[in-house]
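Revision sheet: structure tokens.
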Amino acid sequence: MKKLLMLLFLLISTCTINADLRVDFSIGKSTISVQREDILQVHADAIVNPANSSLKQGGGVCGLIFNAAGSQLLTKECQEALKKRGMHFLQEGDVVETSSCNLAGFKKIFHVVPPNFNSKNKMQQYRLFDEDGKLLLRQSYINLVRATDVSGVQSIVIPFLSGGNFCRNESDLPEMAEIAIDAMKDVFSENQNYSIEVKFVLFSESDFQLFRDCIQKKLS
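Predicted:
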């Protein structure tokens, strides 16, 4: 099955490299780009918040999004979203949608709870970067695409899930980037009716290089 999906991917995908800061490839009707940029400056219908299970303001990209959207406004919407579900906490891989509040350039925010591989990060339950943890990370990306399709969103900006404050060992980052690209490749190959523009936006040069190298390896 894996070999069949890879063959299908190669037949229906195209890849272009724009200068040094962006790589694009398409699968069916969907497009995936990897670019180095300030995530708040890349416009799309929606942006992804790498959330903690309580949907409270955290650090890193999560903190940036809360501050730009209006911390009190977004906190209120997040807690209302939890209340509608009858929950106090989300599980890893869960996705919740809110408005973008005061966040310019986006209509919606998708909050996803990726696994936390950093034992020093006390905002989220710690998980080993083992097979179960990797499957949860993969599922987080897949759940985002499914939520995007259901919501009718046509473009979405995604940061490096489980990177930053959620990652303890830098040696795990290359495989985490590969999980991200493989998840998108597989879900779009299996769902040709999807028409979504996914933008992976990385702030650091090292993270961008990881994603770019991963795409080029997958297409070589």
